[in-house]
Amino acid sequence: MTEITPELVRHLAGLARIEVTEAEVAQFASQLALIVDSVATVKAVASQDIVATSHPIPMANVFREDVVTASLTQEQALSGAADSDSGRFKVSAILDED
Amino acid sequence: MELLSKSASELASMLVKKEISSVELTKAQLDNIDKLNPKINSYLTVTHELALSQAKQVDDQRAKGESLPALAGVPIAVKDNLATIGIATTAGSKILQGWVPPYDATVVKKILANKMPILGKTNLDEFAMGSSTENSAYGPSLNPWDLTRTPGGSGGGSSSAVASMQAPLAIGSDTGGSIRFPAAVTGTVGVKPTYGAVSRYGLIALGSSLDQVGPVTRNVMDAAMLQDAIAGHDPMDATSLPESLGSMTEAAKNDSVKGLRIGIIKELTGEGFQKGVSEKFNEALEVLVAAGAEIVEVSCPSFQYAIAAYYLIQPAEASSNLARFDSVRFGLRVMPEGAATVEKVMSATREAGFGPEVKRRIILGTYALSSGYYDAYYGSAQKVRTLIQADLAKAFEKADVLVSPTAPTTAFKLGEKQEDPLAMYLNDIATIPANLAGIPGMSLPVGLAKEDNLPVGAQFLAPAREDARLYKVGAVLEKLLEAKWSKKMMDFAPELKVN
Predict the structure, then answer these.
(1) pTM surpassing 0.90?
(2) What is the ipTM of this complex?
(3) B364 and chain A: CB distance < 8 Å anywhere?
């Protein structure tokens, strides 16, 4: 059984920028342990010399012509923002005060 | 009601003959939605005014004798993970509640160009993560065949709408079976085209290397016409196929399966499948054999790793895709108490805005991608993809199309699997390989399971870019089954009692 500790869940949730309650930590730890055990069966092929497939239909270097086309206006781009100021997205302080 | 149970192709021809106007049809359709939707919850947003104004426009154009696309005037429902200008788009999540996109998904643009009135946006599991719609932040949709059961997921809004005559056509998206599983459990037709056949631009991304938009309909011809309407190269989607796959509408006119080699996938039959599902599946095969098709058995041993690989790749891609919900550019912003940095605002927003399954998958994906685990999990899962493609390539040497039941069971009860993520994931055992390999798949109704009188779906798979084969075999099987039953699949559906 893979051990998914509460600390690991807190760490992963932190990396994913999701606050989690203690109840969620406990629940996710036990559920993720089961899920990770189940998906770990893929390790059976880990050592085999097989090329990895990241994309199902091979394509490379997909470009379009370098032509300027219509795009969203500044107003449209900001239309879904929680807050904006002078045509820019507005957020809280990036750094802690201390 | 008789009007609303007609197929989209029949409706299109009535519109051409001016036996009915698009306004009359759209109005009747909206009336039925107003009656049924409060109970079934297929739609998260109903766009009465928009639909009627579009219908009026197409009627006016027709009156002037303008030449119109094949499905002009036939209304359609759109899954709520496709961006629509001026119409709220939630992806079934609280984090996008009230978001009104400033752009249209390419598929939506195509629907508008095809002059199809948009009835509204359909329910889904949050960000399309689920097999039942129970993960929707706006409550589950119900299965019209039995209101205590799921219409499947993630596209249960679209499947239940089409199955309950709340729309003749709908758009779905399929990452691991979200079009085909709902189709199977509601007696409808659902197609996941070849990866890249339909643009993903404006589809709120779940697993970018797996997602594909496709048709949800009540028969094969309707699905073909809809795929023709929405497919095609899109410079806005770098994974969009540059070449045309030909006319699916023409393929759906096929009337013979003589000599067609149909491969039964050994790993997707027998054990683990509900008895009534296997029975109906086998009956469908007998019908095809009687019509001259040849059955061969194929083996895809790597399918045993498919679900495992999928639940690494998809959460990994989702964890990255959903990073965009950061409380800055769109959607919810939750301010924690006291002085807050942007990072704290982000974390509080994502805590409040995401439901449990989305959090679970983001955390799982973050785990799979973290250093020290990456090679063992994500790297191996990508190797499995290669193995599955190799198995399929070999199988398609022996067979023109492959077949299996679409799902192991008929529709399950709402609540039955909600507390057990692993049990929920198993619904997609037969559908996931197509997404991992990028190939097209169709779910077609093949009757009702004896033990519960609920719809059973058969899934056909074809090689990448050979979507036409699905429509060729699907059209013939549908016709043969309807002749055998002397009615259509939907004629078996129980009368819907709401209130």
Answers:
(1) yes
(2) 0.95
(3) yes
